[in-house]
Amino acid sequence: MPTSTWTRHHVLSLADFTAAEYDIVLQTAASFQEVLSRRTKKVPALQGQVVANLFFEPSTRTRSSFELAAKRLSADTLNFAASTSSMTKGETILDTAKTYLAMGTDIMVIRHKEAGVPNAIAQEMDRLGVRVSVLNAGDGQHEHPSQGLLDLFTICSLIDPANPRLELLKGKKIAIVGDILHSRVARSNIWSLIASGAQVHLAAPPTLLPKFFAEYIFEDEPVPPGQLFIHWELEPALQNADFVMTLRLQKERMTAHLLPSLREYHQLFGITRAKLQRCQPNVKVLHPGPVNRGVEISSDLMDDPEFSLIQSQVTSGVAVRMALLYLIGSGKT
Ligand code: NCD
Protein backbone atom coordinates (compact mmCIF):
# COMPACT_ATOMS: atom_id res chain seq x y z
CA MET A 1 0.00 0.00 0.00
CA PRO A 2 1.25 3.50 -0.88
CA THR A 3 2.31 4.78 2.56
CA SER A 4 5.82 5.92 1.65
CA THR A 5 4.89 9.51 0.87
CA TRP A 6 2.40 9.90 3.72
CA THR A 7 3.77 12.24 6.39
CA ARG A 8 0.63 13.66 8.03
CA HIS A 9 0.38 12.92 11.73
CA HIS A 10 -3.09 14.35 12.50
CA VAL A 11 -6.09 14.69 10.17
CA LEU A 12 -7.94 17.81 11.31
CA SER A 13 -9.05 19.46 8.08
CA LEU A 14 -8.97 19.01 4.31
CA ALA A 15 -8.11 22.68 3.72
CA ASP A 16 -4.39 21.91 3.35
CA PHE A 17 -4.63 18.42 1.82
CA THR A 18 -2.45 17.94 -1.25
CA ALA A 19 -3.51 16.16 -4.45
CA ALA A 20 -0.99 13.41 -3.60
CA GLU A 21 -2.57 12.91 -0.17
CA TYR A 22 -6.06 12.59 -1.65
CA ASP A 23 -4.78 9.97 -4.07
CA ILE A 24 -3.01 7.99 -1.34
CA VAL A 25 -6.23 7.90 0.70
CA LEU A 26 -8.27 6.85 -2.36
CA GLN A 27 -5.84 4.08 -3.34
CA THR A 28 -5.48 2.80 0.21
CA ALA A 29 -9.27 2.82 0.68
CA ALA A 30 -9.66 0.87 -2.58
CA SER A 31 -7.28 -1.81 -1.24
CA PHE A 32 -9.29 -2.01 1.99
CA GLN A 33 -12.56 -2.15 0.06
CA GLU A 34 -11.14 -5.28 -1.55
CA VAL A 35 -10.16 -6.68 1.87
CA LEU A 36 -13.72 -6.03 3.08
CA SER A 37 -15.13 -8.09 0.21
CA ARG A 38 -13.12 -11.17 1.32
CA ARG A 39 -14.40 -13.88 3.61
CA THR A 40 -11.83 -12.91 6.24
CA LYS A 41 -12.21 -9.15 6.52
CA LYS A 42 -9.49 -8.51 9.07
CA VAL A 43 -5.82 -7.54 8.60
CA PRO A 44 -3.19 -7.32 11.36
CA ALA A 45 -1.97 -3.80 10.35
CA LEU A 46 -2.63 -2.04 13.68
CA GLN A 47 -2.26 -4.98 16.03
CA GLY A 48 -1.31 -3.74 19.51
CA GLN A 49 -2.40 -0.16 18.84
CA VAL A 50 -5.20 1.54 20.73
CA VAL A 51 -7.82 3.64 18.94
CA ALA A 52 -10.07 5.73 21.23
CA ASN A 53 -13.34 7.08 19.86
CA LEU A 54 -14.01 10.24 21.85
CA PHE A 55 -17.47 11.38 20.82
CA PHE A 56 -18.69 14.42 22.71
CA GLU A 57 -21.66 14.72 20.31
CA PRO A 58 -24.14 12.09 19.06
CA SER A 59 -23.26 9.97 16.03
CA THR A 60 -24.41 6.75 14.40
CA ARG A 61 -22.43 6.07 11.25
CA THR A 62 -19.22 7.99 11.92
CA ARG A 63 -18.67 6.45 15.35
CA SER A 64 -19.65 2.92 14.34
CA SER A 65 -17.60 2.98 11.15
CA PHE A 66 -14.48 4.27 12.92
CA GLU A 67 -14.93 1.49 15.47
CA LEU A 68 -15.42 -1.18 12.81
CA ALA A 69 -12.50 0.21 10.78
CA ALA A 70 -10.20 0.01 13.81
CA LYS A 71 -11.35 -3.54 14.56
CA ARG A 72 -10.83 -4.67 10.96
CA LEU A 73 -7.24 -3.40 11.32
CA SER A 74 -6.89 -5.48 14.54
CA ALA A 75 -6.47 -2.41 16.79
CA ASP A 76 -7.91 -2.38 20.31
CA THR A 77 -10.77 0.09 20.57
CA LEU A 78 -12.04 2.27 23.40
CA ASN A 79 -15.41 3.93 23.13
CA PHE A 80 -16.42 7.00 25.03
CA ALA A 81 -19.75 8.80 25.09
CA ALA A 82 -19.89 12.13 26.94
CA SER A 83 -23.27 11.42 28.52
CA THR A 84 -22.01 8.31 30.38
CA SER A 85 -18.52 9.61 31.17
CA SER A 86 -16.88 11.48 34.06
CA MET A 87 -17.54 14.70 32.16
CA THR A 88 -20.92 14.59 33.87
CA LYS A 89 -18.86 14.95 37.10
CA GLY A 90 -17.03 18.01 35.76
CA GLU A 91 -13.93 16.52 34.11
CA THR A 92 -12.60 18.79 31.34
CA ILE A 93 -12.09 17.73 27.71
CA LEU A 94 -8.30 17.97 27.97
CA ASP A 95 -8.24 15.92 31.17
CA THR A 96 -10.46 13.32 29.47
CA ALA A 97 -8.01 13.16 26.56
CA LYS A 98 -5.07 12.82 28.97
CA THR A 99 -6.85 9.95 30.73
CA TYR A 100 -7.01 8.09 27.40
CA LEU A 101 -3.38 9.01 26.75
CA ALA A 102 -2.35 7.43 30.07
CA MET A 103 -4.02 4.18 28.97
CA GLY A 104 -1.71 4.02 25.96
CA THR A 105 -4.01 5.41 23.25
CA ASP A 106 -2.25 5.81 19.88
CA ILE A 107 -5.04 7.44 17.87
CA MET A 108 -7.86 9.64 19.18
CA VAL A 109 -10.91 10.03 16.96
CA ILE A 110 -12.69 13.15 18.20
CA ARG A 111 -16.11 14.65 17.58
CA HIS A 112 -17.29 17.76 19.38
CA LYS A 113 -20.03 20.34 18.90
CA GLU A 114 -17.49 23.19 19.12
CA ALA A 115 -15.20 23.96 16.20
CA GLY A 116 -11.52 23.62 17.07
CA VAL A 117 -11.68 21.01 19.86
CA PRO A 118 -9.80 18.28 17.88
CA ASN A 119 -7.15 20.90 16.95
CA ALA A 120 -6.78 21.93 20.60
CA ILE A 121 -6.31 18.30 21.70
CA ALA A 122 -3.82 17.67 18.88
CA GLN A 123 -1.83 20.75 19.97
CA GLU A 124 -1.82 19.56 23.55
CA MET A 125 -0.56 16.09 22.50
CA ASP A 126 2.21 17.73 20.45
CA ARG A 127 3.10 20.01 23.36
CA LEU A 128 3.40 16.97 25.62
CA GLY A 129 5.73 15.41 23.03
CA VAL A 130 3.66 12.22 22.68
CA ARG A 131 3.12 10.36 19.38
CA VAL A 132 -0.67 10.41 19.61
CA SER A 133 -2.56 11.21 16.42
CA VAL A 134 -5.87 13.03 16.34
CA LEU A 135 -8.54 12.43 13.69
CA ASN A 136 -11.29 15.03 13.49
CA ALA A 137 -14.63 13.20 13.28
CA GLY A 138 -16.60 16.45 13.00
CA ASP A 139 -16.11 19.70 14.94
CA GLY A 140 -19.01 22.14 15.12
CA GLN A 141 -19.61 23.86 11.81
CA HIS A 142 -15.94 23.64 10.89
CA GLU A 143 -14.94 20.37 9.19
CA HIS A 144 -15.62 16.67 8.83
CA PRO A 145 -12.60 15.46 6.86
CA SER A 146 -13.34 11.72 6.91
CA GLN A 147 -16.84 12.42 5.52
CA GLY A 148 -15.34 14.58 2.75
CA LEU A 149 -12.92 11.76 1.91
CA LEU A 150 -15.59 9.07 1.90
CA ASP A 151 -17.80 11.18 -0.35
CA LEU A 152 -14.83 11.64 -2.68
CA PHE A 153 -14.10 7.91 -2.62
CA THR A 154 -17.76 7.03 -3.27
CA ILE A 155 -17.86 9.26 -6.36
CA CYS A 156 -14.40 8.38 -7.73
CA SER A 157 -14.89 4.65 -7.28
CA LEU A 158 -18.23 4.86 -9.06
CA ILE A 159 -16.45 6.41 -12.06
CA ASP A 160 -13.46 4.03 -12.00
CA PRO A 161 -13.79 1.26 -9.40
CA ALA A 162 -10.39 -0.23 -10.24
CA ASN A 163 -8.50 3.02 -9.85
CA PRO A 164 -10.31 5.79 -7.95
CA ARG A 165 -8.28 9.01 -8.19
CA LEU A 166 -8.77 12.74 -7.78
CA GLU A 167 -8.43 13.71 -11.45
CA LEU A 168 -11.60 11.76 -12.33
CA LEU A 169 -13.65 14.70 -11.05
CA LYS A 170 -11.96 17.35 -13.18
CA GLY A 171 -14.68 19.33 -14.99
CA LYS A 172 -17.57 17.47 -13.32
CA LYS A 173 -20.42 19.60 -12.03
CA ILE A 174 -21.33 18.94 -8.41
CA ALA A 175 -24.26 20.64 -6.68
CA ILE A 176 -24.22 20.93 -2.88
CA VAL A 177 -27.73 21.74 -1.70
CA GLY A 178 -29.14 22.60 1.70
CA ASP A 179 -27.99 23.92 5.03
CA ILE A 180 -24.54 24.96 3.88
CA LEU A 181 -24.08 27.61 6.56
CA HIS A 182 -24.15 25.08 9.41
CA SER A 183 -22.53 22.19 7.55
CA ARG A 184 -19.04 20.92 8.33
CA VAL A 185 -19.62 18.30 5.61
CA ALA A 186 -20.08 21.03 2.99
CA ARG A 187 -16.85 22.74 4.06
CA SER A 188 -14.75 19.55 3.86
CA ASN A 189 -16.33 18.63 0.53
CA ILE A 190 -15.63 22.08 -0.89
CA TRP A 191 -11.89 21.62 -0.21
CA SER A 192 -11.67 18.18 -1.83
CA LEU A 193 -13.88 19.01 -4.81
CA ILE A 194 -12.05 22.26 -5.55
CA ALA A 195 -8.73 20.36 -5.33
CA SER A 196 -10.04 17.85 -7.88
CA GLY A 197 -10.84 20.52 -10.46
CA ALA A 198 -14.61 19.98 -10.22
CA GLN A 199 -17.12 22.81 -10.53
CA VAL A 200 -18.92 23.22 -7.22
CA HIS A 201 -22.37 24.83 -7.21
CA LEU A 202 -23.80 25.69 -3.79
CA ALA A 203 -27.57 26.17 -3.54
CA ALA A 204 -29.64 27.22 -0.52
CA PRO A 205 -31.92 30.00 0.66
CA PRO A 206 -29.89 33.14 1.55
CA THR A 207 -30.44 32.52 5.28
CA LEU A 208 -28.47 29.26 4.92
CA LEU A 209 -25.94 30.52 2.36
CA PRO A 210 -24.62 34.03 3.00
CA LYS A 211 -23.53 36.10 -0.01
CA PHE A 212 -19.86 36.14 1.01
CA PHE A 213 -19.71 32.48 2.08
CA ALA A 214 -16.95 31.63 -0.43
CA GLU A 215 -14.78 34.60 0.62
CA TYR A 216 -15.45 33.72 4.25
CA ILE A 217 -14.21 30.13 4.00
CA PHE A 218 -11.26 30.94 1.73
CA GLU A 219 -10.22 33.68 4.22
CA ASP A 220 -7.10 35.39 2.84
CA GLU A 221 -6.80 33.28 -0.32
CA PRO A 222 -8.55 34.15 -3.59
CA VAL A 223 -11.63 32.03 -4.39
CA PRO A 224 -10.57 29.81 -7.34
CA PRO A 225 -12.08 31.42 -10.44
CA GLY A 226 -14.69 29.33 -12.29
CA GLN A 227 -14.87 26.66 -9.60
CA LEU A 228 -17.22 27.80 -6.85
CA PHE A 229 -20.68 29.25 -7.52
CA ILE A 230 -23.42 30.45 -5.19
CA HIS A 231 -27.12 30.14 -6.04
CA TRP A 232 -30.18 31.12 -4.05
CA GLU A 233 -32.33 29.01 -6.34
CA LEU A 234 -32.06 25.30 -6.98
CA GLU A 235 -32.47 25.15 -10.76
CA PRO A 236 -29.15 26.68 -11.91
CA ALA A 237 -27.24 24.41 -9.52
CA LEU A 238 -28.99 21.29 -10.81
CA GLN A 239 -28.71 22.16 -14.51
CA ASN A 240 -26.50 19.42 -16.07
CA ALA A 241 -25.11 18.40 -12.68
CA ASP A 242 -23.26 15.07 -12.52
CA PHE A 243 -23.69 14.67 -8.75
CA VAL A 244 -26.03 16.26 -6.22
CA MET A 245 -25.03 16.33 -2.55
CA THR A 246 -27.94 17.08 -0.25
CA LEU A 247 -27.43 18.19 3.34
CA ARG A 248 -29.50 17.81 6.45
CA LEU A 249 -31.15 20.90 7.90
CA GLN A 250 -29.11 21.25 11.11
CA LYS A 251 -31.97 22.35 13.34
CA GLU A 252 -29.79 21.90 16.45
CA ARG A 253 -27.40 24.60 15.14
CA MET A 254 -30.05 27.11 14.03
CA THR A 255 -30.28 29.88 16.59
CA ALA A 256 -33.11 31.73 14.81
CA HIS A 257 -36.03 30.93 12.54
CA LEU A 258 -34.18 30.73 9.25
CA LEU A 259 -36.94 29.05 7.23
CA PRO A 260 -40.65 29.82 6.81
CA SER A 261 -41.60 26.10 6.95
CA LEU A 262 -40.17 22.67 6.20
CA ARG A 263 -42.88 22.23 3.56
CA GLU A 264 -41.85 25.32 1.69
CA TYR A 265 -38.20 24.35 2.02
CA HIS A 266 -38.93 20.96 0.48
CA GLN A 267 -40.85 22.60 -2.35
CA LEU A 268 -38.00 24.95 -3.18
CA PHE A 269 -34.85 23.03 -2.29
CA GLY A 270 -35.87 19.43 -1.59
CA ILE A 271 -34.40 16.98 -4.13
CA THR A 272 -37.02 14.93 -5.93
CA ARG A 273 -37.06 12.68 -8.97
CA ALA A 274 -38.80 15.40 -11.00
CA LYS A 275 -36.18 18.03 -10.16
CA LEU A 276 -33.38 15.66 -11.19
CA GLN A 277 -34.67 15.88 -14.79
CA ARG A 278 -32.49 19.00 -15.15
CA CYS A 279 -29.32 17.08 -14.32
CA GLN A 280 -27.19 14.75 -16.43
CA PRO A 281 -29.16 11.57 -17.27
CA ASN A 282 -27.01 9.36 -15.02
CA VAL A 283 -26.92 11.83 -12.11
CA LYS A 284 -26.35 10.40 -8.62
CA VAL A 285 -27.46 11.81 -5.28
CA LEU A 286 -25.48 11.76 -2.03
CA HIS A 287 -26.43 12.59 1.55
CA PRO A 288 -24.11 12.21 4.59
CA GLY A 289 -27.01 11.14 6.82
CA PRO A 290 -28.89 11.27 9.07
CA VAL A 291 -31.71 12.23 6.67
CA ASN A 292 -34.89 14.17 7.35
CA ARG A 293 -36.99 12.08 4.98
CA GLY A 294 -39.22 14.19 2.81
CA VAL A 295 -37.44 17.44 3.70
CA GLU A 296 -34.05 17.68 1.98
CA ILE A 297 -34.74 14.64 -0.22
CA SER A 298 -37.95 12.83 -1.10
CA SER A 299 -38.36 9.50 0.62
CA ASP A 300 -38.72 7.45 -2.58
CA LEU A 301 -35.62 8.98 -4.17
CA MET A 302 -33.57 8.27 -1.07
CA ASP A 303 -34.36 4.56 -1.38
CA ASP A 304 -33.91 4.33 -5.16
CA PRO A 305 -30.58 2.60 -5.90
CA GLU A 306 -30.64 3.93 -9.47
CA PHE A 307 -30.05 7.46 -8.14
CA SER A 308 -29.09 7.23 -4.50
CA LEU A 309 -25.51 6.63 -3.31
CA ILE A 310 -26.48 6.97 0.35
CA GLN A 311 -25.96 3.31 1.25
CA SER A 312 -22.68 3.10 -0.64
CA GLN A 313 -21.45 6.21 1.20
CA VAL A 314 -21.96 4.31 4.46
CA THR A 315 -20.16 1.25 3.07
CA SER A 316 -17.29 3.39 1.74
CA GLY A 317 -17.00 4.98 5.18
CA VAL A 318 -15.48 1.85 6.68
CA ALA A 319 -12.81 1.45 3.95
CA VAL A 320 -11.92 5.16 3.99
CA ARG A 321 -11.64 5.23 7.79
CA MET A 322 -9.52 2.06 7.67
CA ALA A 323 -7.27 3.91 5.19
CA LEU A 324 -6.93 6.95 7.48
CA LEU A 325 -6.23 4.89 10.60
CA TYR A 326 -3.76 2.75 8.69
CA LEU A 327 -1.89 5.67 7.10
CA ILE A 328 -1.59 7.46 10.42
CA GLY A 329 -1.05 4.39 12.55
CA SER A 330 1.50 2.57 10.44
CA GLY A 331 3.97 5.42 10.97
CA LYS A 332 3.97 4.60 14.69
CA THR A 333 5.34 1.08 14.59
C1 NCD B 1 -22.95 14.64 9.43
C2 NCD B 1 -22.34 15.29 10.65
O1 NCD B 1 -22.44 14.79 11.75
O2 NCD B 1 -21.73 16.31 10.45
N1 NCD B 1 -23.29 13.31 9.57
C3 NCD B 1 -22.35 12.34 9.53
O3 NCD B 1 -21.31 12.43 10.10
N2 NCD B 1 -22.66 11.27 8.79
C4 NCD B 1 -24.03 15.48 8.87
C5 NCD B 1 -25.21 15.80 9.70
O4 NCD B 1 -25.23 15.59 10.92
O5 NCD B 1 -26.15 16.32 9.13
UniProtKB/TrEMBL annotation:
<feature type="binding site">
    <location>
        <position position="89"/>
    </location>
    <ligand>
        <name>L-aspartate</name>
    </ligand>
</feature>
<feature type="binding site">
    <location>
        <position position="289"/>
    </location>
    <ligand>
        <name>carbamoyl phosphate</name>
    </ligand>
</feature>
<dbReference type="Pfam" id="PF00185">
    <property type="entry name" value="OTCace"/>
</dbReference>
<feature type="binding site">
    <location>
        <position position="290"/>
    </location>
    <ligand>
        <name>carbamoyl phosphate</name>
    </ligand>
</feature>
<feature type="binding site">
    <location>
        <position position="147"/>
    </location>
    <ligand>
        <name>carbamoyl phosphate</name>
    </ligand>
</feature>
<dbReference type="InterPro" id="IPR002082">
    <property type="entry name" value="Asp_carbamoyltransf"/>
</dbReference>
<keyword id="KW-0665">Pyrimidine biosynthesis</keyword>
<dbReference type="InterPro" id="IPR006131">
    <property type="entry name" value="Asp_carbamoyltransf_Asp/Orn-bd"/>
</dbReference>
<comment type="function">
    <text>Catalyzes the condensation of carbamoyl phosphate and aspartate to form carbamoyl aspartate and inorganic phosphate, the committed step in the de novo pyrimidine nucleotide biosynthesis pathway.</text>
</comment>
<comment type="subunit">
    <text>Heterododecamer (2C3:3R2) of six catalytic PyrB chains organized as two trimers (C3), and six regulatory PyrI chains organized as three dimers (R2).</text>
</comment>
<feature type="binding site">
    <location>
        <position position="61"/>
    </location>
    <ligand>
        <name>carbamoyl phosphate</name>
    </ligand>
</feature>
<feature type="binding site">
    <location>
        <position position="62"/>
    </location>
    <ligand>
        <name>carbamoyl phosphate</name>
    </ligand>
</feature>
<dbReference type="InterPro" id="IPR006130">
    <property type="entry name" value="Asp/Orn_carbamoylTrfase"/>
</dbReference>
<feature type="domain" description="Aspartate/ornithine carbamoyltransferase carbamoyl-P binding">
    <location>
        <begin position="10"/>
        <end position="155"/>
    </location>
</feature>
<feature type="binding site">
    <location>
        <position position="248"/>
    </location>
    <ligand>
        <name>L-aspartate</name>
    </ligand>
</feature>
<dbReference type="Pfam" id="PF02729">
    <property type="entry name" value="OTCace_N"/>
</dbReference>
<protein>
    <recommendedName>
        <fullName>Aspartate carbamoyltransferase</fullName>
        <ecNumber>2.1.3.2</ecNumber>
    </recommendedName>
</protein>
<feature type="binding site">
    <location>
        <position position="111"/>
    </location>
    <ligand>
        <name>carbamoyl phosphate</name>
    </ligand>
</feature>
<feature type="binding site">
    <location>
        <position position="184"/>
    </location>
    <ligand>
        <name>L-aspartate</name>
    </ligand>
</feature>
<dbReference type="GO" id="GO:0004070">
    <property type="term" value="F:aspartate carbamoyltransferase activity"/>
</dbReference>
<comment type="pathway">
    <text>Pyrimidine metabolism; UMP biosynthesis via de novo pathway; (S)-dihydroorotate from bicarbonate: step 2/3.</text>
</comment>
<comment type="similarity">
    <text>Belongs to the aspartate/ornithine carbamoyltransferase superfamily. ATCase family.</text>
</comment>
<dbReference type="InterPro" id="IPR006132">
    <property type="entry name" value="Asp/Orn_carbamoyltranf_P-bd"/>
</dbReference>
<feature type="domain" description="Aspartate/ornithine carbamoyltransferase Asp/Orn-binding">
    <location>
        <begin position="170"/>
        <end position="327"/>
    </location>
</feature>
<keyword id="KW-0808">Transferase</keyword>
<dbReference type="InterPro" id="IPR036901">
    <property type="entry name" value="Asp/Orn_carbamoylTrfase_sf"/>
</dbReference>
<feature type="binding site">
    <location>
        <position position="144"/>
    </location>
    <ligand>
        <name>carbamoyl phosphate</name>
    </ligand>
</feature>
